[in-house]
Amino acid sequence: MACSVADSGFLFLASKQRPIHSTRITQVASSGTYCLKWESLPQIRSKQKSCLISLRKTNVVRAVAVPIAPSSLDSAEDRKRLSEMYGFRQIGEPLPDKVTMKDITETLPKKVFEIDNGKALKSVLISATSYTLGLFMIAKAPWYLLPLAWAWTGTAVTGFFVIGHDCAHKSFSKNKLLEDIIGTLAFLPLIYPYEPWRFKHDRHHAKTNMLHEDTAWQPVWKEEFDSFPALRKAIIFGYGPFRPWMSIAHWWLCHFNLKKFRPNEINRVKISLGCVFAFMAIGWPLIIWKTGIIGWIKFWLMPWLGYHFWMSTFTMVHHTAPHIPFKNSDEWNAAQAQLNGTVHCDYPSWIEVLCHDINVHIPHHISPRIPSYNLRAAHQSLQQNWGKYLNEASWNWRLMKTILTICHVYDKEQNYVPFDEVVPEEAQPITFLKKVMPDYA
């Protein structure tokens, strides 16, 4: 906080303020004291040095909210401060421009690329068993325990997605036809077309955090945000309180439209869509016939929403933070994007087991050929050789609050500008999140 004491003619300025973004003026009783309060969230208490600057006597202090670019990541002190502010355990120092993907990949032990059919089968058994247990829990649980049963089952079915994810990267089995069959089957309970997702996801890996080309989530474009008032409101909700389920919109808009795929991809896309529609045409009526509409909601819809919570959460945590930039293609550097622009996040053990370590994400972006069961060994190698460049966190409220309330509209200098700075009069969902979400890491 910075305060001007009008009668004494002095201005106290606090140094090392947070990097974002606005101020407001308040008057303390009738003392003639005016205070500039920084409104950026998340609010972290820190010791601040002050300096004394002599000014001419004045009765009014005028302040203008000026966007301030994030502090430099070159300083260890700044990185530590930003880590605490954003909810990270560590923010990596910038990767030198001369480092290439080949340099990083060559430091990984060869064993992490080895496909083990036994370990792959083990992951299938874990997912099948945990999902079956989840359905049993839903069937037997009293109404007040159903949310716990849904949380378990939604997490378990996310494991099926990770299995299909490995199959799409050809890192699951030595038999490539078997991979496509298992990948298609693993995606069916999720109503996810395997081939369309595979084509889109491959582009995400090739263009990670590239401003126009990345097929995963990007910042909101100011032009799009300003185009239609109704769309603007939907975007505010979608990138705010509904963001943990925004993968549903991504699933629907990006994977069922044939116009979004290249001509040589169309036939495989049609096969996957046919499998999904067949599952819906046969599976859903069977569920309703056996359990009714309420049973369909209990046994399929609620776990499906649980899966999309993890799909959305993993995606945004892996690639979204105020200090992680999206770059134009002419400025983009693969090694910086994959190693320095991807996040490793630790979750509770049961989540990591059921989701087959998909949270160990940095080595997966260094090489998608690393099977999920080898990701931890690969990450240990990266820590030994490139540890100071890694972004690491443990899943916490402050991390989620940072993403949901700050990482919104694209800005080249700041990376992101929050909605409540762009349109404060319309950003009630964001101000609500700032008030109700806890702020501890």
UniProtKB/TrEMBL annotation:
Its main location: membrane. Residues 142-389 form the Fatty acid desaturase domain. It is found in: Membrane. CDD domains: Delta12-FADS-like. The keyword Transmembrane applies. The keyword Thylakoid does not apply. InterPro entries: FA_desaturase_dom, Fatty_acid_desaturase. GO terms for molecular function: oxidoreductase activity. One of its GO terms (biological process) is lipid metabolic process. Keywords: Membrane, Oxidoreductase, Transmembrane, Transmembrane helix. It comes from the Eukaryota. The chain crosses the membrane at residues 144-164, 269-287, 293-310. One of its GO terms (cellular component) is membrane. It holds the Pfam family FA_desaturase. Belongs to the fatty acid desaturase type 1 family. This is Omega-6 fatty acid desaturase, chloroplastic isoform X2. It comes from Nicotiana tabacum (Common tobacco).
